[in-house]
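user: can you give me the structure for this one chain? tokens are fine.
assistant: on it. calling the predictor now.
[tool input]
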Amino acid sequence: MRNLASVLKPGGKAYIVTQFANSHFRAWSKNGKAEHYQDGWLVRSARGASFYGLIGPNKLVEYCERSGLEVVESGTRCHGNAAFVEATVPEDV
């Protein structure tokens, strides 16, 4: 999140969506390639890394605010299966 905030220009916007309910989440806990990391599982591969987690709207807002982003709107979509945040970099940064 901090990296995102650092590359956006003042006034720049980000629309961030995370899975909030995921039927595959429990399967990652049994995957030998996955390591528990914060709110989910980090899976490293030769092409990089992927993060699979259940980050709810309140936690997503917290991450944005701690990174210096101003939250414009937040909530859930897709019948509560996805959390979203629309955030911006303050103009006075």
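assistant: here you go. The CA atoms of residues 4 and 14 lie 8 Å apart. Residues 57-66 form the longest helix (10 residues).
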